[in-house]
TrEMBL record:
One of its GO terms (biological process) is defense response to other organism. Keywords: ATP-binding, Nucleotide-binding, Plant defense, Repeat. One of its GO terms (molecular function) is ATP binding. Residues 182-352 form the NB-ARC domain. Residues 440-510 form the Disease resistance protein winged helix domain. This is Uncharacterized protein. The lineage of its organism: Eukaryota, Viridiplantae, Streptophyta, Embryophyta, Tracheophyta. InterPro entries: Apaf_helical (IPR042197), LRR_dom_sf (IPR032675), LRR_R13L4/SHOC2-like (IPR055414), NB-ARC (IPR002182), P-loop_NTPase (IPR027417), RX-like_CC (IPR038005), Rx_N (IPR041118), WH-like_DNA-bd_sf (IPR036388). CDD domains: RX-CC_like.
Length: 958
């Protein structure tokens, strides 16, 4: 993690030194000399950081040294950010005043002749801070020598344990179902060509039991009888093709091989398996390098049909790379009960009944901390074998596994930490840093993926690409961590937002690795020794405070705090914010969401490093101060669901680094003028057209979006009917924005039942509002026209479509032709019938045969709401998959449909045959009496048997 801290600092130092070419710079306390010396020391330290990072797990002195280095790095980062911010503000002020000639406004540092005295003093203060930090780094660099660090070599530390195919099956508990699944796949008919081999992957967290499960299957009697040859190879890291080929050959021939060249080894392997059915287990595969696997793969062809390769890995990407699509088994955690059984089997071995009775209650609590990891249960059980007194057991329980000074350090490090450390140290340092950042959240905290990426970005963890897309880098880091099982319990909402959690043991591990940096304060630790002794060094803090708890002033001691999340409904928070902002000026990420504050104090302008500000669901928030616009580093601002907030600060255009602005469902009535200056804006979730009224002079026009070329994600254009000049739409260049979702709210949900006169230009307006052709999500609400736009059917990448309320639309376009549509919602339409035209199924004029036979090929979810005039939903004469003698086409309609929900369609008589034949997993019918009578089980509907095969069926009355 320290290495990831150093890299951006070195880049900043290089930039500053390069800028300082003017003579006057050297007058400011010799800044260039200070920066050069600092950079030299940091480079020397960086060369041994990987070795130091690994040694800190078992050497407290090294850890203390790294802690001092990280503190110095944080201080250095703050100073450099202050320096850079001062330069940025100076340039902005001069540009705004426009009082100097082009010659005087130079880009070089301190380039203005009118550089006033107080600015010089400010730069001098920053230069003195650089000098002070440099002295700290000098001392740290001198200490480096006494630890004997080396340039790190991958084979020097933390060698992966070599596994074997042998396992004591009697000691394995809770994997019977998974074992049957693996054995079944091993014995099943091959799905590949005769010369190919099916690859089966077991994927899961380190220590969860992948190797044990593979061993059970490998030694199964049926498996042994089925395969002529069985080979077990422990791969680990690095992926050595020669070593692996040699191990395979030695297993096949039963003796050591004298061959050394890769090609000769592979040739012999190929000869040894020719025409034989074999099982090869590759245990603990890490490499994602497809080229390495491709070198081995050809030698494994030529075998008999039914041969198998069984892979265990912690990485989803490895399973994909090795071609195990359709044959991937994700290994789940064991239950608490099974973990307790494993723990008790080991911990109470050869103990008296009296000891069992005396210690079982504590043992159960310890075993519960394993959270489904059998390795942790076995290790803790082994640890407790040597501990006889209740006090010793209590001490282990309170240590939460990771306090190495309270338990046997070697036992913990080698048998509990290693599964996580191996995954952790296999990550690039920048990804490690992103993972460890999650230690600031409480256990079992539901994290939001997009929010987390913004927080990583605010901390400077995401390096900007050539295209400027730090968000894409963050997404990649997230996917890496998810694939390694550092995250779990993923859930996706209807807007495709994702939440997730961390396993408790993974969380404990992250907190151990960030012992002095991340802290969670709750009702149990508030005012306790933990806060008092640790708060001064904390960098990332979550405060989960009860409503009746006053804000703790001890937090003011955390002068270097960079992240702050406050979860409280106590209204006293508002009064505490001014002093908080005065004291904690290093904050980069601030989350006050769901709090009861009514205003943000002017002191927020002192948070010059602030990049991420989350005020979502602050429903009582009435105003934002203009000083927010002084936060020239701000990257994201979220005021969604702040219903009492009516306006944004008028000088919002000064936030030139703002990338994400969320205002949907807030009381904000318009976007202020000046939005066009924020050219790096990526997210603008709602733009309200202001057609006259008191806000017209303050509101931005739609055409101000023209130069915001990076806008992507979801954009809702509200009150489109107020657009007076169609030219404004053309100038906005919406069809060239990088959008994933575009929503037009033509009238608004509140006016669903209100009939208004249709503007003459509404039909032409919707045609002009043409989105980019690669749009993925589209919502059209409140449209008053008769016909939906012609461009809708050109959106071939559309995945989600929501139509309604559109009270005048009677006929739908052939939506079934949209090739990638996965979710469809129709509500408050005047449609009376869903027929072949809706499916996009056309009949040949001459033959009368259906020529187009695939409709909604990827649709998974179909919701119909408040289509109160619909009576018929036509079926097709031939069922899904049926063939006709006169055509070779196969009718396939909604072949992937899993969910169908129909609400308040009282006239609808029946479901079509293709829906009844679809692979539905859930059917929900609400407020549809005809359908309830026809299909309902309780009323013994005449067609109940047609839907009874669906696993989940729900009927509701409204």
């Amino acid at each position: 993690m320290a290495e990831a801290l150093l890299s951006p600092i070195l880049e900043q130092l290089t930039t500053i030194v390069a800028q300082q070419v003017q003579e006057e710079v050297n007058l400011v306390v010799g800044v260039k000399k200070q920066c050069d010396k600092l950079k030299s020391n940091l480079l020397d330290i960086q060369s041994v950081l990987e070795d130091a990072d690994r040694k800190q797990v078992k050497d407290k002195a090294v850890r203390d040294w790294l802690d001092k280095l990280k503190d110095a790095c944080y201080d250095m980062d703050d100073v450099l950010d202050e320096w850079r911010t001062a330069i940025l503000r100076w340039k902005m002020e001069e540009a705004e005043e426009n009082t100097h000639s082009r010659q005087k406004i130079r880009c070089s540092f301190l380039g203005s002749p009118c550089f006033c005295f107080n600015q010089v003093v400010r730069r001098r203060d920053i230069a003195l801070k650089i000098k002070e930090v440099r002295k700290k780094v000098d001392d740290i660099a001198k200490e480096r020598a006494k630890y004997g660090f080396d340039l790190y070599k991958t084979t020097d530390e933390l060698q992966r344990l070599t596994t074997t195919s042998f396992v004591d099956e009697s000691s394995v508990i809770g994997r019977d179902g998974e074992k049957r699944n693996v054995v079944s796949k091993l014995l099943a008919e091959s799905s590949q060509e005769a010369r190919d081999v099916d690859v089966i992957s077991l994927v899961g967290l380190g220590g969860i039991g992948k190797t044990t499960l593979a061993q059970l299957a490998f030694n199964d009697a049926e498996v042994t009888a089925h395969f002529e040859k069985k080979i077990w190879v422990c791969v680990s890291e690095p992926f050595d093709e020669v070593k692996i080929a040699k191990a395979i050959l030695e297993e096949l021939e039963g003796r050591a091989s004298d061959l050394v060249g890769l090609q000769s080894l592979l040739r012999r392997v190929s000869e040894s398996i020719e025409g034989k059915r074999f099982l090869l287990v590759l245990d603990d595969v890490w490499t994602e390098n497809h080229g390495q696997w491709e070198q081995l793969k050809p030698s494994l062809t030529g075998c008999a049909r039914g041969s198998r390769i069984l892979v265990t890995t912690r990485k989803d990407a490895v399973a994909t790379m090795m071609g195990s699509t359709g044959h991937r088994i994700n290994i789940k955690e064991l239950s608490d009960e099974i973990c307790r059984s494993i723990f008790n089997h080991v911990a109470f071995q050869e103990r008296s009944e009296d000891e069992r009775e005396r210690l079982t209650d504590i043992g159960d609590k310890i075993a519960n901390k394993c959270k489904g990891l059998p390795l942790a249960a076995k290790v803790l059980g082994g640890l407790m074998q040597s501990k006889r007194t209740r006090e010793e057991w209590d001490r282990v329980l309170s240590s939460e596994l990771w306090r190495l000074d309270e338990v046997d350090r070697d036992q913990v490090e080698r048998r509990i930490f290693i599964p996580l450390l191996l995954s952790y140290y296999d990550l690039p340092s920048v990804v490690r840093r992103c993972f460890l950042y999650c230690a600031m959240f409480p256990k079992d905290y539901e994290m939001d993926k997009d929010e987390l990426v913004k927080m990583w970005m605010a901390q400077g963890y995401l390096k900007e690409t050539s295209g400027g897309d730090m968000e894409l880098v963050g997404e990649q880091y997230f996917q890496v961590l998810a694939a390694r099982s550092f995250f779990q319990d993923f859930e996706t909402d209807e807007d495709e937002g994702m939440t997730f959690k961390m396993h408790d043991i993974v969380h404990d591990f992250a907190q151990y690795m960030t012992k002095n940096e991340c802290l969670t304060v709750d009702v149990n630790t508030l005012g306790g020794a933990t806060v008092e002794t640790s708060i001064e060094r904390v960098r990332h803090l979550s405060m989960m405070l009860p409503n009746e708890t006053s804000f703790p002033v001890s937090i003011h001691k955390a002068k270097g705090l960079r992240s702050l999340l406050i979860d409280t409904r106590d209204p006293s928070l508002g009064a505490a914010l001014p002093d908080l902002f005065k004291q904690l000026t290093c904050i980069r990420s601030l989350n006050l969401s769901r709090s009861q504050i009514k205003e943000i104090p002017n002191e927020v302008g002192k948070l010059i490093h602030l990049r991420h500000l989350n005020l979502a669901w602050c429903v009582e928030l009435e105003s934002l101060p203009e000083t927010i616009c002084d936060l020239c580093n701000l990257q994201s601002l979220d005021v969604t669901w702040c219903r009492s907030l009516k306006e944004l600060p008028k000088a919002i255009g000064k936030l030139i680094k703002l990338r994400h602005l969320w205002i949907d469902s807030s009381g904000v009535a318009f976007i202020p003028k000046g939005i066009e200056r924020i050219t790096c804006l990526r997210t603008l979730d709602k733009f309200t057209v202001c057609g006259g009224g008191e806000n017209e002079s303050k509101a931005a026009n739609l055409r101000e979006l023209k130069n915001l070329n990076h806008i992507g994600g979801s954009l809702r254009i509200d009150k489109v009917r107020d657009i007076e000049n169609v030219r404004d739409v053309v100038d906005a260049l919406l069809n060239k924005k990088r959008l994933l979702c575009l929503e037009w709210n033509f009238k608004g949900v509140d006016s669903i039942l209100v009939k208004t006169e249709l503007p003459e230009h509404e039909g032409s307006l919707i045609e002009v509002l043409r989105p980019p052709s690669d749009l993925e999500n589209l919502t059209i609400r409140g449209y008053g026209g008769l016909d939906l736009p012609n461009w809708m059917m050109t959106l071939t990448r559309l995945r989600m479509l929501s139509l309604g309320p559109c009270e005048n639309v009677e006929v739908l376009p052939p939506l079934g032709r949209l090739p990638n549509l996965e979710r469809l919602l129709l509500f408050f339409l005047k449609v009376r019938r869903l027929d072949a035209g809706f499916l996009g199924v056309e009949k040949d004029e001459n033959e009368g045969e259906i020529a187009r036979v695939t409709a909604f090929p990827k649709l998974k979810s179909f919701r119909i709401r408040y289509l109160e005039e619909i009576e018929e939903w036509d079926g097709i004469e031939r069922r899904v998959g049926e063939e006709d003698a006169n055509t070779t086409s196969i009718i396939s309609i909604m072949p992937q449909l899993q969910y169908l929900g129909i609400r308040k369609c009282p006239l609808l008589r029946a479901l079509p045959d293709y829906v009844l034949a679809a692979p539905l997993q859930e059917l929900e019918i609400m407020g549809c009496p005809n359908l309830t009578n026809r299909y309902g089980e309780e009323e013994m509907g005449e067609d109940w048997q047609k839907i009874s095969h669906i696993p989940n069926i729900y009927f509701h009355d409204i």
